[in-house]
Amino acid sequence: MLTTKNLDRRQKRHLRIRKKIQGTAERPRLSVYKSLKHLYVQLLDDQGGRSIMSATTNTKANKTSGKKSFANVSSAQELGRQLAEKAKAAGHDQVVFDRSGYRYHGVVKAVADAAREAGLKF
């Protein structure tokens, strides 16, 4: 169950992580966010202050499938694969992984493993 105490703790962890890592135009930051129903991943250039590309499970194609939640490991693997393919096509081979304060297991690990399998290096 998501409580404000857990959310505050995650946000503190996220800020502590963000002090140490930074995305550049050559090596963008791969950021993962998960809500109760959907997953979101982005490649971010922190120096330029812009989002290079993103992928999400919150799309029209998914909404017509009838499922209630897409925040699961199979959706995470597909999402990681999609983002890695888009990144490789845009010429980004290396990224910095930002788990956003989440524990590195389950969906977060599935996104990272799928992106690595698809060719991203981090």
Strand line-up across the major sheet? 3-2-1-4
**Shape annotation:** globular
- Largest sheet features: 4 strands, mixed
The fraction of residues in strands falls at 15-25%
What structural class should be given to the helix and strand makeup? alpha+beta
The radius of gyration computed from the alpha-carbon positions, rounded to a whole number of angstroms, is: 14 Å
The level of helicity is: 40-55%
Unreliable segments (pLDDT under 50, ≥5 consecutive)? none
Description of the molecule:
The chain is an alpha+beta fold and 122 residues long. It contains 4 helices and 4 strands, in the order αβββααβα. The protein has helices at 4-20, 60-63, 73-90, 107-117; strands at 29-34, 39-45, 50-56, 96-98. A 4-stranded mixed beta sheet has the order 3-2-1-4, covered by helices on one side. Helix 3 runs parallel beside helix 4. It is globular and about 40 Å long. The N and C termini lie far apart (31 Å). The mean pLDDT is 93.
